[in-house]
Amino acid sequence: MKNNIIILIAIIFFSACKIPALVSKQEENKVPAYYNNAQDTTNIASIKWRQYFSDPYLIALIDSALKNNQELNIALREIEMDNNEILARKGEYLPFVNIAGVAGVDKTGRYTWDGLSEEDLKANPDKAPKHIGEFRVGVYASWELDVWKKLRNSKKSATLKYLSTIEGKNFIVTNMIAEISSSYYELLALDNMMSIVQQNIELQKNALHMVKLEKEAAKVSQLAVNRFEAQLLHTQNLQYDIQQKIVETENKINFLAGRYTQHVARTSILLNDIPIEMVQSGIPSQLLLNRPDIRQAELALAASKLDVQVARANFYPSFRLSAGTGFTAFNPSFVFSPESLLFNLVGDAIGPLINKNGIIAAYKNANEKQIISAYQYERTILSAFIEVANHLSMINNYKKSYDTKFKEVEILNQSVDISNKLFISTKADYIEVLLTQREALDSRIELLETKLKQLQAKVNIYRSLGGGWN
After folding, report:
1. What is the mean pLDDT of residues 31-39?
2. With b meaning 16 or more CB within 10 Å and e meaning fewer, what string describes 70-83?
């Protein structure tokens, strides 16, 4: 009998060990040594967001979003769910102990073997129950032996997924801070544009009044008056488009802050007066530590590797111990007597023998997910590096663009005064005045847009380097 059991276990084990060979992928995490030949390891990602963004109005908006943003709060709940999953996985490789109580009555048929046996007890009617009962109280335990570390690897995988969820939350924080900051600077730019347009409306009203006087003096025709008036109406019309953008931008900020429509308090400082500090990007290898999305992908990859081991362990036999002790009797009054004591101890080994398609499919899918996770990890690193490279280029080019555009604005502002004086002295045509005014307005707006791009590049490079979540 003993030899037969050993042979049976051996058959189960060797049959279960026929595991299909799979091709895995080793991830690459190498990045270039430098972004632009700069070897300084100083990195703005290490700066806390409260120091990086010094505007108190912007800080208040970010604080509100960190408390009330629905997406962020959903991420926090998902973190708790993954933490609970760790607890569940940990419990799987510990013994399960249950307490149970059973009470029941069973009437045996007269013309059955059990019923006939009752006849033998008629001589002692006090001990022969009319109805056979079952009353049991006991403690039962079961424990799956984690021989192949399937359960422990499953718990480790759940832990890594939990940590990955935390990094996902950090990535949401980083993006949210960047999005609020970018929208805040856009709102300041729209305020400044509105101010510029209103200043130009006043200038054009004065110019229109001047042209009307010139017409009364028969120096210009009605055509000149109409052209100046049309220019004024065009500029006035710009207000409404800017006002609509202000409303939409405020509402976008309110949405990110998790609140309903309200006025967004903001600084009155001119956008062009906001300084742009020098950006210190460090070296690319720091992205592997600073970027939450890279760490999230790395943890997800590690979890997927453990999932492959868990799926592989399903090919091997599982071993389980079961034990129980308690009291049982057909009459409640006899339950706790010494003669009613029972106990059992059972060990079993179960392994797949035939029709293992489900196990094979799960194993292959786990391997495919590991390969996908490796590619996603590599893609995340590549995407992060390219983002930083693009934003560093933006900062450099927009700085040059702003300096050039600033000179253009100064020249055109001077040209507006010159053209007005020349028009009064009949040395310039009214068309020249109109064109100069429009070019001056357009250049001032373009200067603001360039400054906005500079500030947004400052925000984006901070996000791309992994700043904000800490």
Report:
1. 79
2. eebeebeeebeebe
